[in-house]
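Why predict the complex rather than its parts? Because the way molecules touch one another can change local conformation, and only a joint prediction can capture that. The input here totals 606 residues.
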Amino acid sequence: MDVKQQKLNKEYQIYVQRKMPKSNLLRDCILAFLVGGLICTIGQAVNNFGKSYFNLNTEEASAFTAIVMIFIGALLTGLGVYDDIGKYGGAGSVVPITGFANSIVSPAMEFKKEGYVFGVGSKLFSIAGPVLVYGITASVLVGLIYFFVK
Amino acid sequence: MEYLRAFLVGGLICVIAQIIIDKTSLTPARVLVCFVTAGVILTAIGIYEPIVKFGGAGATVPLPGFGYALAKGAIKGVEEMGAMGAFVGGVRAAAGGITAAVVFGYLAAVLFNPRMKR
Amino acid sequence: MAKHRLGGQTIKLENPPCILSRATIVGKKEGQGPLGEYFDVVLEDSLWGEKTWEKAECRMYQEAAKMAITRAGKQPQDINYLFGGDLLNQIITANLAARSLGIPFFGLYGACSTLTESMSLGAMVISAGYADLVLCVTSSHFCTAERQYRFPLEMGTQRPPTAQWTVTGAGAFLLSNHMKPPYITHITTGKVIDYGITDTNNMGAAMAPAAAATIKAHFEDTQQGPDAYDLIVTGDLGRFGRELTIDLLKKEGYDISDRLIDCGCEIYSKDQDVHAGGSGCGCSAVVFGAYILRKMEEGVYKRILLLSTGALLSTTSCQQGESIPGIAHAVTIDMDRG
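Output of the joint prediction:
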């Protein structure tokens, strides 16, 4: 690409950036705060329920909470509600573990037409797979570093 | 109070993610990866533990909490069985969540069908 | 230079072909929009009784094609060529539809510019005397496009304000050498233009330079200005892409702000929550076929310039960080044969 075209591109990109409407950050943040906060509060209630009703210790209660929240996220995605929550909640519905469930169910459900192995089976982790890859790899690294510096 | 703290901490973590999504062109999938990894690292350097102590589910339900469980499990594994624990501990601690995601995810995908967005 | 060429990118057709008949089919949301009453068929739901959205889109494509043929009182075997395409990988909708239509077929891919691309080629073939009847069909479907290019439908994501909504719709146009207005008189073929936009949620900005370049080339080649047209119709630039195009042409000395309309802006109303407007192969096809041509027949517009605009991206090219090239092809639609 010649220099003149590069300059033209740069000018256009700056101009577009200036001209384009921005997302309403304040509104988005407030909604993310409310939705995310609410989901975590529900999580806290599940956690407390596990502790008092099943006499779970802290770690068990965390696992119990994760399982229940993932179930809720998967169910709401299946019922077609979670995308509506996501439209308003933004990151507030993406970051909690219910959003992780949503990212698993939504592609799997949609690719069911491509079969149960290469459709559902492989698409389950099309978005969530990287999360596991990087999370687990990072944790192994942390464990190994801890082993050597301990 | 416990609920209020969970609400505040959980809400704030989501706000950080929202700012990243709006201000950069990172897709939600990338944000999820970053947040899990951030959870692992913050736990390793001892920052996430106090947040969990304070926020409860507000810190464990968002995805950095998943990273927290992985990192804490890996460290515990190393303490129990040495270097091999780094490979066993993390996933063992998060096994409930991962298995639930696979099983419920599969069931929901099989039972339900997607609908046109309104 | 060839006999009928005007300037670098434009041709004046020696025997301007006419648009003999047409048909449009749209989805429910488009039917609820401001142009709802103009469309021939409005679907009840996104599946139209089919098992998959891909099958539904294919059926829309076929039915639109058949309807346009029947309306002209013809049979599929009377049609010399089918030119068409869609947005899906390997233009599979068009290929599958052509399988059952049984018309000699040229498959085209110009992303959302496929409508005017196919009309350009169809008109040339007729004008040159190689065909009597050519059918041009394009389609797009929100659900099939969304799952190929973006996210699963049930995924809870937010759409930025510049995002556009893929139109569920199919439009078919039967071109012929009859003497019956409206006619296709000029064709300006666009070049692929890329100003380095990489945001896939801002197709309007990626396509606006291509639209502006083609309009400018058309004006220069034909030595006419915006005044020669009652309307300049772009395919799917959306609200912001339209504004960018107007600004870009102002810099070149052409003011088209009073006569540029964009099909993507017209098809939905503000309260339908589509952000910047509609997009897709079906967008310009159904708005042009159902609304603009009707207004031309009613005598509201006599001469228009139609540009379908395409963003030539693939999911692979985006992921590899490639910028989004744009293209726009223009055809002049005139009630006089010129």
